[in-house]
């Protein structure tokens, strides 16, 4: 199940997003609203200024996707839903994140728990999905090169 966390939305806007999310039985079966940032896999940010975006970037986990509602993505490259906002445009932004995410293998939920020692060398950065590695080079032929 996917979890959506809202940042910077007033109670009326939050209720409208939740009602729209849960009104469709297919979406309701796949999504839930959460008030716990650590449980959310998608964070929807009402970005009124750069400080809000910077704070969310600092708090978000590497595996979370962030979608910005505002006038600018402030150079983050995160999906942007521009104003004026409709519930449909918000869910189009969320769907774009989920479509992009489905192109990659999911990280198993117990993956981080199984790591031991220093993990700082791992190539994980905030909201970055890594493309598959290029194919390995062909093995060198046996013997000296021919001239």
Describe the structure.
A five-stranded parallel beta sheet has the order 2-1-3-4-5, sandwiched between helices. The protein is globular, with a radius of gyration of 20 Å. The protein has helices at residues 11-23, 25-30, 50-59, 87-101; strands at residues 2-7, 31-33, 42-46, 65-69, 80-81. It is α/β, with parallel strands linked by helices and 147 residues long. The longest helix is centred in the middle third of the chain and has 15 residues, at 87-101.
Radius of gyration: 20 Å
* Unreliable stretches covering 5 or more consecutive residues: 114-136
Class derived from helix and strand content: alpha/beta
Secondary-structure element order, as H and E?
Answer: EHHEEHEEH
Number of helices: 4
Report the portion of residues in β strands: 5-15%
Helical percent range? 25-40%
Largest sheet: 5 strands, parallel
How many individual β-strands? 5
């Amino acid at each position: 199940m996917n979890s959506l966390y809202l940042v910077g939305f007033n109670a009326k806007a939050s209720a409208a997003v939740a009602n729209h999310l849960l009104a469709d039985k297919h979406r309701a079966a796949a999504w839930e609203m959460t008030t716990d940032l650590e449980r959310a896999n998608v964070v929807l940010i009402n970005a009124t200024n750069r400080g809000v975006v910077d704070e969310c970037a600092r708090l978000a986990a590497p595996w979370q996707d962030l979608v910005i509602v505002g006038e600018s993505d402030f150079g983050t490259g995160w999906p942007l839903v521009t104003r004026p906002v409709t519930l449909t445009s918000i869910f189009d932004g969320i769907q774009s994140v989920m479509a992009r995410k489905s192109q990659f293998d999911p990280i198993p939920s117990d993956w981080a728990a199984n790591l031991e020692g220093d993990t700082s060398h791992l190539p994980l950065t905030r909201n970055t999905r890594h493309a598959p590695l290029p194919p390995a080079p062909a093995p060198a032929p046996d013997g000296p090169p021919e001239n």
